[in-house]
UniProtKB/TrEMBL annotation:
It comes from Cyprinus carpio (Common carp). Residues 23-109 form the Ig-like domain. This is Ig-like domain-containing protein. InterPro entries: Ig-like_dom, Ig-like_dom_sf, Ig-like_fold, Ig_sub, Ig_V-set, IgV_Light_Chain. Keywords: Signal. Residues 1-19 form the signal peptide. SMART domains: IG, IGv. The keyword Secreted does not apply.
Amino acid sequence: MLFILSWTLTLLFIWQSMGQSQITVTQTPSVKTVTPGENVVMSCKFTGWGLAWYQQKPGETPKLVIYQVNDRYGNSFSRFSGNGRSGGTDFTLTISGVQTEDIAHYYCQNLLWFISSTFHSLIL
């Protein structure tokens, strides 16, 4: 069984005290094919001081996976890890040994500005 993993870019606007700014969140790769058991790396690029990753399965509310760049939330996400440097620009979410239950939308969020991007996964 193969998974096709693809990114969808979301652009959001934020309000700063001096006016409105447009922030672009970049994620790579745009499409990736993996098999169960492989490691999957999702990237999120922007400047920020704190980052969270969320998982949202169809029909469910988003669940916090990683907070403060690399702190895992709870025991349910033991195969998930976050990487990056707070105040930096490059952040990743890695799923070790991807499984069918990992199929979901994944969102990265700058904790200060509510910038997010979405990650879509489909089973073939």
